[in-house]
Design brief:
This protein is of the alpha/beta class. The chain has a single domain, classed as Collagenase (Catalytic Domain) (3-Layer(aba) Sandwich). Helix content is about 50%, strand content about 15%. The protein is built from 5 helices and 4 strands, in the order E-H-E-H-E-E-H-H-H. Strands 1-2-4-3 form a 4-stranded mixed sheet. Helix 1 packs across helix 4.
Length: about 150
């Protein structure tokens, strides 16, 4: 799995090696061992611009997923999954809100974004939302549980 990582914010330090390890674990548990994926870490301002441009929602969000497997031409390069963009400012805010560590919140958003790239979509139906939530919890238990200590 080829994982590219870009850190386009300065406020919150990241551990690229650890993040790539989590990403590989998520993909492996989803039976995806070949392909390409991009991870982009940004601030609230930048993710708001992307959210407004691509979704028509003029506010910051925590995670955006840009699938390369959907739409016209999506089957041309099935090994290219797409990009996951995460606001590390939102990670910090949500970690406090949900009483989690920033690391746990980051893993949660990483899982969420990757599942979107793999075709999960909680906005389609209640059944699909529950299916995605179950998978997120299952992955989090295995990854976050194994990264502690």
């Amino acid at each position: 799995m080829n994982i590219s990582l870009q850190n386009r914010q300065r406020k919150f330090p990241i551990d690229p090696k650890k993040i790539k390890q989590w990403t590989r674990q998520i993909l492996s548990m989803q039976k995806m061992n070949q392909g390409e994926l991009g991870l982009v870490f940004v601030n609230n301002h930048r993710i708001r611009v992307y959210n407004r441009t691509y979704r028509g929602i003029d506010r910051a969000t925590d995670v955006l997923a840009f699938s390369m497997r959907e739409g016209p031409g999506g089957d041309l390069h099935p090994q290219v999954l797409g990009d996951v963009m995460i606001s590390l400012e939102m990670v910090a805010t949500e970690a406090l809100l949900y009483e989690r560590t920033r690391e746990e919140q980051l893993i949660i958003l990483l899982i969420h974004g990757i599942l979107h790239l793999l075709g999960y979509d909680h906005t389609q139906s209640l059944a699909e939302a529950k299916r995605m939530e179950r998978r997120e919890k299952w992955l989090l238990t295995r990854i976050y549980g194994s990264s502690e200590g």
